[in-house]
Input
Amino acid sequence: MTTRLYENPIFLEHLTPPGHPERPDRLRALNVALEHPNFAPLDRRQAPQANEDAILLAHPEEHLFAVMRQIPEEEGEIRQIEADTYASPKSLQSALTAIGGAMAAVDDVMTGDVSNAFIAARPPGHHAEKATAMGFCYFNSIAIAARHAQRKHGAERVAIVDWDVHHGNGTQDIFWNDPSVLFCSTHQMPLFPGTGKRDETGIKNNIVNAPLSANVGSDHFREAFKSRVLTALNDFSPDLILISAGFDAHHRDPLAQINLVGEDFDWATGRLMEVADKFAGNRVVSLLEGGYDLEGLAESAGFHIMRLMKG
Ligand code: ZN
Output
């Protein structure tokens, strides 16, 4: 089956200040990796821009308005909207296109057009809580994609697996009281944003956190993934698996101290595809979150996408 990849040049126009880790070069590095002939079979599409209404699937209207008010108008201006979150004139458009790509990918897998898809987008989204932009994120694209799968396609049980090295506090916040969504996260702890302890379980054990200590590598990650994430997924039997695919647990990443290698993302992807084969008609949608070392990101995302293509 074909793997679809959503991209859009607008993602290069969301600008952050010099030296900021979440920068357009991340996608440029990924694009260079995707030039390899192995990726030629990818079905590459332009991500569509979502309507602003889509944001209301996971956020109150006030949050949308608050973000809109902070987007600068003057070309070249980069405004700090929160501790480490910045906006440039095209940032809203870029965020809406990340959401539009994720929603289109959900449509694709729910209608059986393709079995899986990857969205190479920025800004990321998993730190955005219901009413809070933070950690480079304005809106929680993966949460919006999950709600879209439920509202438009009748998905009953959506699983979100977040292997970004930072805890997906925003996704946890949005689904804390919603047992129709299982949220599983592996992440370094302690580390930004500070949440993600094992005893944070949601209203009906629908939140599964697997914190990892600094300096651990593949063995600890795989053990936590098997014992916590895969066990929970098998109990939940999802209709659809969404992946918050951050690649900052790679050993080269400057923002964290977990020592994964590219092959670990191949392995984790393969395990999730097995679960999707068992319960979810192979449906997997993966959305880029973090990953701040250009080489580590390109290598890891390459392994991940290549495994999706073998599905
Ligand atoms: Zn991260």
In short: The chain has a mean pLDDT of 98. Residues 91-110 form the longest helix (20 residues). The pocket of zinc ion is lined by residues 164-166, 246, 248, 289-290 (CB under 6 Å). The chain has one domain: 4-309.
